[in-house]
Amino acid sequence: xxxxxxxxxxxxxxxxxxxxxxxxxxxxxxxxxxxxxxxxxxxxxxxxxxxxxxxxxxxxxxxxxxxxxxxxxxxxxxxxxxxxxxxxxxxxxxxxxxxxxxxxxxxxxxxxxxxxxxxxxxxxxxxxxxxxxxxxxxxxxxxxxxxxxxxxxxxxxxxxxxxxxxxxxxxxxxxxxxxxxxxxxxxxxxxxxxx
Length: 195
Known about the structure:
- The chain is an all-alpha fold.
- The protein has helices at residues 14-33, 39-46, 50-56, 60-85, 88-116, 126-143, 152-159, 171-186.
- Helix 5 (88-116) crosses helix 8 (171-186).
């Protein structure tokens, strides 16, 4: 290497990438079960030492925000894929189901995300998330299954109740009921009550 050449960036070792993925998987599961899960418990569940966890994520906030960034981006990317694969109402239901799954994680770490994004004001995912909702609503309005002119931000406010449902207290059942209520409110013809 000459004096004018910049040093090449070091490649991340394959085992380091594997460790990072295992940490994120273990953290997602642990935090969905309890927002108070310790970093030591997460490292143990991932099969790595606490030093390895801290090399990848120097703070609890860094770990939580990495999970948040990953999961919210998956939801954003999922909306158009579902609209391309399913009738609009089914696409909306499937997307809502994934939002509810994500809500179980956010329940335990909502305060960290809220603080890190300045109460959502500095959240780079906010506008893309609204755009994902709009894709679903527009498709439903176009085929007549959803009311026209629905505001994506209103739908997001309704969905935000999901991150307040304690997963340990029958959260899955409650989330399903709430999502049915939200979906029925968006439909042009709500589901008739079962008799």
